[in-house]
Amino acid sequence: MTKITENLQLVRQRIDAAALAAGRDPEEIRLLAVSKTQSATAVLEASKAGQRHFGENYVQEALEKMERLAERDVRWHFIGRLQTNKTGSIARNFHWLHSLTRIDIAKRLSDQRPHGTRPLQVCIQVRIGDEASKAGVSEADVAQLADAVANLPGLDLRGLMCLPPVSTDQAIQRRNFAQLRHNLETLRANGHELDTLSMGMSADLEAAITEGSTCVRVGTALFGARR
Ligand SMILES: *Cc1c(COP(=O)(O)O)cnc(C)c1O
Question: φ and ψ at 113, to 5 degrees?
Answer without folding.
Answer: -65, 125
